[in-house]
Amino acid sequence: VPILMYHYIAVPPPRADAVRRDLSVSPENFAVQLRYLREGGYHSITLRDLVLHLQTGYPLPEKPVILTFDDGYIDAYTQAYPLLQQYGFTATFFLITGFIDSGNPEYVTWGQVREMSAAGMEMEAHSLSHPDLTGRSVDYLVWQIVGCKEAIEAHTGKTVRFFNYPSGRYDRQVIAVLTSADFWGAVTTESGITHSSQHLFQLKRIRVHAAESLATFVKNLTQQVDETEKQRSGY
Ligand SMILES: [Zn+2]
Fold first, then answer.
1. Helix (H, G, I), strand (E, B) or coil at 204
2. Is residue 185 classed as helix, strand or coil in its secondary structure?
3. Residue 218 C-alpha to ligand 1 middle, in angstroms?
4. 214 C-alpha to center of ligand 1: Å?
5. Cα(120)–Cα(48) distance, integer angstroms
6. Crossing angle of the two packed helices 172-180 and 138-156, in degrees rounded to 10
7. pLDDT per residue over 44-81, tens digit each?
8. How far is it, in rounded angstroms, from Cα 57 to Cα 49?
9. What is the SS3 assignment for 60?
10. 10 Å Cβ neighbour count for 213?
């Protein structure tokens, strides 16, 4: 199951650095990708669906895909959300709750989070302030991870079950805190589409790059589907 990883759905500002530019898929390109997914018969599923499938054999639709958005930038609400609704897809948004609490205008507001959650979008945890979580004390990890989880739950009324490691960095202690806090899994920045119930805290994703053509997007996705079908048929 391909888990697509997006950051900004926006045209980057004129003086943006190379990283910001690479993380920014334009709304036009994103719409083209969504149209391709819809016309190609893809169905968006949630991370919950994936875990239930891996653990209990819960059935998935044909051509399942998971769309994820990191960091909760304001364009998640102004650009990604309306396009997702227009094309009939749901997605998972990973929020940095300290930035929302402080009213940083570059990020979504709690009102926007509630609206998207009520419309069926998954709101999951990405820490309080996006630090490197490796080599930290348990107290610090609980503060960053459980604090974030509880803030989202308080605002949406829905249980948070998934975590996204800030900058993709994690260690055994981070995973131990996640499991003790009743998380079901976590996504990484590692590349791949093959998932197993033994590695729910190391879910791999496919990064969508700013400059990539639809042909590249399709090529990645088509390879992924071939692998998914191999998995299904027992290879
Ligand atoms: Zn992030």
1. strand
2. strand
3. 25
4. 24
5. 13
6. 40
7. 999 999 999 999 999 999 999 999 999 999 999 999 99
8. 10
9. coil
10. 11
Report yes or no on whether pTM surpasses 0.85: yes
Amino acid letter for position 3: I
Q: If we measure between CA atoms, which residue out of 195, 133, 134, 200 comes closest to residue 161?
A: 200
Token pair for 88: 């009939």
CA of 166 to the centre of ligand 1 (A): 5
| H helices present in the chain, as ranges | 18-22, 27-39, 47-56, 74-75, 81-87, 97-101, 110-118, 138-156, 172-180, 214-232
Sign of CA dihedral 76, 78, 82, 83: negative
d(CA 104, CA 99): 6
Question: Of 62, 110, 87, 63, nearest to 9 (Cα)?
Answer: 87
Place of tokens 């055994």: 172
Q: Can you give the pLDDT at residue 228?
A: 52
How far does the centroid of ligand 1 lie from the alpha carbon of residue 130, in Å?
A: 6
- Cross-strand pairs, 187: 164, 203
Q: With beta carbons less than 8 A apart as the criterion, state whether 135 and 185 touch.
A: no
Interhelix angle 138-156/110-118, rounded to 10 degrees, is 60
- The Cα 92–Cα 168 span in angstroms is 17
